[in-house]
Structure formats: structure tokens, C-alpha cells
Amino acid sequence: MIKTYKVMFSPNNKQKSKLFQCAGVMRWAYNWALERQKENYKNGDKFISDSDLRKELTQLKQTDEYSWLNQYSNNITKQAIKDACDSYKRFFKGHSNFPKFKSRRKSKPSFYNDNIKVKITETHVKLEKLSPSKKKNRQKLNWVKLVEKGRIPTGKNISYSNPRITFDGLNWWLSVGVKEAEKEKAEDNKITEGIGIDLGVKDLAVVSDNKKYDNINKSIKMKKLINNHKRLQRKISKKYDKNKTLIGKAGENRYKYHKTKNIIKSEIKLKKMYKKIKGLRDNYIHQITTSLVRTKPKYIVIEDLNVSGMMKNKKLSKAIQEQTLREFRRQLEYKCLWKGIELIVADRFYPSSKICSDCGSIKTDLKLSDRRYKCSCGLDIDRDLNASINLKNYPLFNKSIA
Fold first, then answer.
1. C-alpha distances in angstroms, 12 versus 18, 139, 141, 169?
2. For residues 196-234, b (16+ Cβ closer than 10 Å) or e, as one string?
3. Residue 89 DSSP one-character state
4. What is the DSSP secondary structure assignment for residue 71, as one 8-state letter?
5. How distant, in Å, are the alpha carbons of 8, 44, 283 from that of 174?
6. pLDDT digits (tens, 9 = 90+) for 249-278
7. What range does the domain containing 66 cover?
8. What is the pTM of this model?
9. How do residues 377-402 score in pLDDT, each as one tens digit?
10. Do 53 and 150 belong together in one domain?
């Protein structure tokens, strides 16, 4: 099992400039490989393999025009070419859209570091060829300080995989995979019975053992942050309107927007505010999923929600987006794998909300506005709690059908 760790950097000004340059080299190599594939396809030739493109780039480095590439690690360009070829193949297989060229303004700065040459200690990480000089005092530039000490496992027997360095608009991050031994399934005498989890908009999660986890976006703190974020967005938009100039012919209504220093400061403040909102949401989901896994249930059952279909509802799309239901499932998947707990995903068309958890009858006329489930057998229960109990009994439901 490969466990991924993501830790924030604390680079100095020289290291920051070198990191941005490395990200620029990655972007150039990706766009160059994609352009070569497009030209080759227009000429009617076959697909160019990434190994052939790397050989072609090695020859280009020997010319004066592209000699500047020798100042940076060749693993950055190698992996960028490989990524471009993989995305090109995925398009022709029908797995994704046609790959786009990476923009300097819109694309996220990132690059690859060789997993063998990367060195990680409790406080620092050594990246490859940030400083081309071999002098000892210049080699210190390759060692970048980590914000969290001792977060990534270190040692001789530990092997790292796919180290990536990314910039999120505010800070630099290192994400690296560490190979760890898989944990066996927990013994029966140490675990409780299975649980079912019903995800929703009113409450984030309702568990079959009558536990409820509120929607964090309805809290007073989050409402204030979201409103402040909206106000700052409007403020920046008004500043852009004040600093626009008309270009082109009269009647075309084409404008050029000037970004002043005050706008740049406001945009940085906006990014920090959004990062705080997103961090609170992600941390809340981490706390819930961790608490659910720590109870060591025999199994966990969740719904296979059609989130993309739910987003088409104009009245609920924003609330569904803020709940980050896909992130909840993602975290639950890998945490169950760590603890050896079986995660069952119920069928998308399983009527968990319409089935009576007491007698088993199905109420076909149940509406979304009905928040209480009332059955002819006398059961009167919360709608979401009834659905979570039915999800808990889903394995028995499958056995009865089989």
C-alpha cells in the first residue's frame, strides 16, 4: 500500500525563484511535446512515443537556442513529456477530453523530482539541481525547509514514489508516496457491527447509530467567512471596472483591464480567505471520517450518489457543492483501507429513503419535502435516520435478492 503525504515548504526568496523557473521548464516541455504530437497527427503519421521525444529533446539541448535547459534537472522535462503523451493517449481511448496547452497565468505551477535523488529529513527536503553549482555553500540552496517537522517517514529502508512539487497560489507543497505494509482486517472481537451513512444537504451525515453531523456551512463562523468572501469579490470587481480602458473601434465594447498593486493585494487576501474556508471544510470532513473509522465497525455502507446529476438542480447546486460529498467518500475509502474495514457502496437505485426500516415496505409517494418517514405499520422516524438504517441492512438486502 502506498500512502501519500503532502507537506508545505518554507523556501527563501532565491529558492522561490528557482521553484518557479522549474515549474516554467515543466510547462514548456509539456507544451512542446503536445505540439509535436499535434503536428505529427496532422501529417498523418503514427503516435510518437515519449522515449523518442525525450531523445529528440536531448539533441535540442546541444544547440545554442535550447542550451538553457541544461541548467535544470532533466527529470523535469522527462516527466513532463511522459505526462503529455499519457494525456494524449487517454483522449484517443475516450477517457478524457483533448489535452490543452498549459497557460502561464491559468495553469498550476508544478514539476516532478526524481524519487531516487530526493532526500528527506525531519526538517528539510533536498530537491534536485536547484543550484547547478557543486560548491558546498551553493549546495545549501537545494535543501528546502519543511513547515511540519517529522511528518514524512524517513529511513534507509523507506522508498519514495512520484514526488511532485506544486504551488497553490500562496504556498509551495511537496506530495510524495511512501510504500507501507497493508494492514490486515481487524479481528471480530475488536469491532462493532456495521454502520450505514446517509449523506445529505440539511445534515452532512446521519449514521445508523443515531449520530448526526451538522452542515458546517450553516454555522455562524462559516456564514461570516462566506459573506466576507463575497464582499471582497465584489470590491475587486469594482476596482477592475474603475481601471478599465476602451480598446478597439467604437461600438465593439472591448476593454483592457489594468491590475494595480491594490488589486493584487486584495486578490492575495481573497485567496487566503478562500483557503481558510476550504481548510475548515476539509478539516471537518477529516474529523468525521476519522471518528467513524476509529469505532472499528465491521463494515461501512454509503450511497453511490449521482453528484453531477444533483448539481443540475439550480436551487440545491450551491449547497451540494459546498458539502463536498465526493471528498467525504474519497477520505472514507482510503481510511477504511488503512484500518482494514470493508467499505460497501450501495447501488445507485437502491431506495434507501423509501424503504421502511421496520416492516420493509416501500413508500413510492415519498417527496423530498417529507422530512419524517411515516409508515402504515406505525413507524414515525426521521427520514435520514431511516435511510441510514436501511443502508446498514443493505448487505442483508443483497443476500435476500440473490
1. 10, 14, 9, 16
2. bbbbbbebbbbbbeebebebbbeeeebeebeeeeeebee
3. H
4. G
5. 6, 40, 19
6. 766 778 888 889 999 999 999 999 999 999
7. 2-179
8. 0.81
9. 888 898 899 999 999 998 877 655 54
10. yes
